[in-house]
Amino acid sequence: MDTRRNLLKKKRRVVIKIGSSSLQHTETGDMDYIRLEVLVRELCNLKNQGKDVVLVSSGAIAQGKKAVHLTPEQLQEHPIAVKQACAAVGQARLMMTYQKIFAEYNQVTAQILMTRQTISNDINRINAQNTFEELFRMGVIPIVNENDTVATHEIEIGDNDTLSAIVASMIGADLLILLSDIDGLYTDDPRANPDAEFIETVEHLDESFLRMGKSTTGSGVGTGGMSTKLTAATIATASGADMVIANSKDVRIIHRIIDGENYGTLFLAEKQDAFDLPDFVENLHSCRERG
């Protein structure tokens, strides 16, 4: 077994991100309750091992769209306002579902909704950090999403890959797991290029790896492609956390990764003392605004 993978067993504070496409049936867009229950069981088991656990969960907008029977034409008429309204409907439904399933394992959860101002404003950031720490002391699992309902731009933080890395950095997590619909990092998009090679470990995240990121996603549901996952890796590794990109097809991959098994792409932490999270987020947002 790879020694570096084996060290994942010792991680004490873990952030796990799961995307919209991983939470629903492709054919209907309805919630995949079996996968949700397995996810909850995995998280509760980590918590029972004495680890601090955070779930960053997409799915609010998708569930809202489904609940109000939104057509593509309606979405195009007022895209930002409609997305915000769908988020308001869907976030409540999503949390209700999570709380019901977590309660079956006697696990208390909390909802934390974040915006860019949560990070860029010093007081807001410190308050958020204090809230996380208190929830951990209480034995609660925080469930985090971007507050799409009040976002003033179509994209604030923009995707939950980046958001999960921001959370990991804020709370001093030592492991971030991104669950998606792809096995990990490849030299090219494996859906388009059958000769693309899988990369098991990234020891140093340099420009050659960052160029592999492309703003594409195979699901048509979420907002995060490989480029957002590499942005997340930049934040996480610079903040001192290892990161793994893995396929959510079987959610039990979570405990296999933490047991040191060779799943997904492992990005090794390279803590940079000069890394400033608020500055990075503001610069990232400015770049996205410029397009």
UniProtKB/TrEMBL annotation:
The keyword Repressor does not apply. GO terms for molecular function: ATP binding; glutamate 5-kinase activity. Residues 13-247 form the Aspartate/glutamate/uridylate kinase domain. GO terms for cellular component: cytosol. InterPro entries: AceGlu_kinase-like_sf (IPR036393), Asp/Glu/Uridylate_kinase (IPR001048), G5K_ProB (IPR041739), Glu/AcGlu_kinase (IPR001057), Glu_5kinase (IPR011529), Glu_5kinase/COase_Synthase (IPR005715), Glutamate_5-kinase_CS (IPR019797). Substrate binds at residues 58, 148, 160. This is Glutamate 5-kinase. It comes from Gallintestinimicrobium propionicum.
